[in-house]
Hints:
- The chain has helices at about 35-45, 55-60, 65-70, 90-100, 115-120, 130-145, 165-170, 195-200, 220-230, 245-255, 265-280, 285-300, 305-310, 320-330; strands at about 1-5, 10-15, 20, 25, 50, 55, 80-85, 105-110, 150-155, 175-185, 210, 230-235.
- By secondary structure, the protein is an alpha/beta fold.
- Helix 11 (about 265-280) packs antiparallel against helix 14 (about 320-330).
- A hairpin with a 2-residue loop joins strand 1 (about 1-5) and strand 2.
- It folds into two domains: about 1-255, Aldolase class I (TIM Barrel, Alpha-Beta Barrel), CATH 3.20.20.70; about 265-330, Putative flavin oxidoreducatase, domain 2 (Non-ribosomal Peptide Synthetase Peptidyl Carrier Protein, Chain A, Orthogonal Bundle), CATH 1.10.1200.
Amino acid sequence: xxxERRGQYTASMRIGSVVYETPFVLAPLxxxxxxxxxxxxxxxxxxxxxxxxxxxxxxxRDGAKSHELLAFAEEERPIAFQIFGARPEAMAGxxxxxxxxxxxxxxxxxxxxxxxxxxxxxxxxxxxxxALLREIASAVVEAAGxxxxxxxxxxxxxxxxxxxxxxxALEECGVSAVAVHPRTRxxxxxxxxxxxxxxxxxxxxxxxxxxxxxxxxAADALRMLETTSCAAVMIGRAAVGNPWLFQxxxxxxRTGAIADAATLAETLATAMxxxxxxxxAKGEHRGVLEMRKHLVAYLRGFRGASHLRAELVRIDGHAAxxxxxxxxxxxxxP
Length: 334
């Protein structure tokens, strides 16, 4: 990955032969960043997207669920497939298998704090096993046939803050970029993200670093770029229900102006588009069910929408939800 700069901000970045238009990308979020959400975010300014994390063990065993998580549309490119696991041979096998689907990047998850992932020795557990992580990273780089990145945390806990050492090791293994979520595994997603960890990593490796954590607004995204020397900013949960955040951050970066928030009509139209994609990808029942958390997020912040949110999580049927959303355009004001 290489980058060019405009002033103190990243003007573009490159992984392999792919150039990314802006320094704002969609973070991987389990249960959220499926293909419909990724497509919406790409259309609204995310310069790259990550899949939900996928089990290497599931992939090498041809698990249907694991392969389903990798379904994507060409309009999502550039896309990174994120895999997790604790066995170098399984991670290499998974990388070789997903490479046949031609992702732009393969990403190693070294940050998930979930107990079921940790129990298997994967995710953030690898922050405690630098020798094993070296084996995994080297094996994935050799098998991938394309750029490999990794997403890490500050460390396992406050007594083992080793993000810099881990990032240096990953670079030595051939990893092309490192994303840093500056909380420990012990913190999970609690407390404040310590952005100084991102800066320390960025100042310690030659591969570019992507920052993640506590980016809720366009101003937050710009502040992370300014204060950490990161090459790009990963936006995660703040983009759920607000995919315009990528556009807003880029507008602020280029012009210094705060973009107008999406209107209620724009919000509902985009929510309907995502619902249609969900049903197309997953079938009516599952698509409507999984869309409910996104609908609640889309409507957050609109005055008078609490009753609508409560209704939408009870309505069954694709057509019925669309009908209620269309009616809402005339009933509610922002």
